[in-house]
Specification:
The protein is mainly alpha-helical. The chain has 6 helices and 2 strands, in the order αββααααα. It has helices at 2-12, 24-58, 61-66, 71-76, 86-102, 108-133; strands spanning 15-16, 22-23. The longest helix has 35 residues, at 24-58.
C-alpha cells in the first residue's frame, strides 16, 4: 500500500522538494531503508515490548528478574516474529530495484557502512520503544513504616 501510494504521488510529481533532486527512485531507496529498519524492530522487539505490560500486570516479570541473565535482554528477545521479516525481503528487493534504476553502484565504504547505519537505526528505534514500554513498570506506593 505504501509503495503504491508513493508511486501514485510520483506519477504526478517528478521530484520532491525544490532543488533537492529527490526523484522517484531516490525516495524509493530511502523507503527501502525505512522498511529494513522497521521490519527488524517488528520482528525482534515489538511483540516483546507489547507483552512487557502484561508481564508486569501478571507478576511474571518478577520471575524474569530472578534469572541469572540480563533482564532487559530476556524481556526484549523472548519471542521473534518471523512473519515481520517479509518486509525485510521487500525492502531489499526495493533497494536493489532502485539502485538499478538509478544506475548507481555504491562504493566499498558505502557497502560496509550501510549495515552499520541500519543497526544504529534499529538501536535508536529500540531504545525509544523500550523506554516507552518501561513506563508500565511503576513502583507501588511507598510505605512510611520502618
Amino acid at each position: 500500500m505504501n509503495l503504491g501510494f508513493y508511486t501514485l504521488i510520483f506519477h504526478y510529481t517528478p521530484a520532491i522538494g525544490a532543488g533537492t533532486g529527490w526523484e522517484k527512485y531516490h525516495f524509493f531507496l530511502f523507503l527501502s531503508t525505512a522498511l529494513l529498519i522497521n521490519s527488524l524492530v517488528q520482528a525482534l522487539f515489538m511483540t516483546n515490548a507489547d507483552e512487557l505490560s502484561e508481564l508486569v500486570r501478571t507478576g511474571t516479570l518478577d520471575f524474569a528478574l530472578l534469572k541469572p541473565i540480563d533482564t532487559q535482554f530476556l524481556v526484549s528477545l523472548t519471542r521473534i516474529e518471523w512473519s515481520a521479516l517479509g518486509n525485510f525481503v521487500v525492502g531489499l528487493g526495493l533497494m536493489g530495484y532502485s539502485l538499478c534504476k538509478l544506475h548507481y553502484l555504491p562504493g566499498l565504504v558505502q557497502i560496509v557502512l550501510y549495515p552499520v547505519y541500519i543497526v544504529c537505526g534499529v538501536a535508536i528505534y529500540y531504545s525509544l520503544m523500550i523506554a516507552l514500554a518501561a513506563t508500565s513498570v511503576v513502583a507501588g506506593p511507598q510505605s512510611d513504616a520502618v
